[in-house]
């Protein structure tokens, strides 16, 4: 027999600014929202900057932890991912890009993931450092075993042991194309520093991805501290464990100036200007004498005709 008391449960009360946190299942929010977002940032920003670009160096234990988290995303081994990511950066905007826009919009979004790519059709890069990394090579060799543990068994154990919600895997590749399509045209992907705030919010920081293409070995994905960039903030938290690299501020500040100059040049091309000085007709002394004969009021002061 159940006995109900007169206690007022929070679920029966309307949600307001004062009590919204009491309505929230914080354990579920942590496991469903915060942890996946943190893992997404690790997979999508942090690990690529360590392996393909060498923006910073992590210790052995941190590399093992990152490899375990990446495995749960089911996106292939870090070795394979890094090799293709380097080719993408080296050949951006060309047919050698692993997901090139020049091969069609559909190819760059989906087809490149489900169709085989010939080794001669993608760009070649130096991966000698990847071959010498023991963590990456063991992760690559034993990837299927790690996949079963981190992508299947571990999530099930967490769900059964701690909360009553489902974990969903997220697909980031469409976000890569979203930020490229919204920020720039194909011809300017690799040579500009365009920023798109809305895209940054949707793609967890990729709205500033062209900065990353312009300065690939810089650990920032967005330069200013207030710009949405999870990787930059995570690196700040883990800075005692890392040896990070960054470009000088003066070098980076040249980018927005160059972009402003490009926009100014485009506006200048659309404007009708007077003839430049070198294209104006030259009047010598003989011409002035002839003009003076026909125009008695014409006077000459120094080298100028008035």
From TrEMBL:
Membrane topology, record value: Multi-pass membrane protein
Subcellular location(s) per record: Membrane
GO CC aspect terms: endoplasmic reticulum membrane
GO biological process: unsaturated fatty acid biosynthetic process
Membrane-traversing stretches: 26-47, 62-81, 146-168
Protein family per UniProt: Belongs to the fatty acid desaturase type 1 family.
Name of this chain's protein: Acyl-CoA desaturase
InterPro entries linked to this entry: Acyl-CoA_DS
Keywords from the UniProt entry: Fatty acid biosynthesis, Fatty acid metabolism, Lipid biosynthesis, Lipid metabolism, Membrane, Oxidoreductase, Transmembrane, Transmembrane helix
GO MF annotation, one: stearoyl-CoA 9-desaturase activity
Keyword field contains Cell membrane: no
Keyword Glycoprotein: no
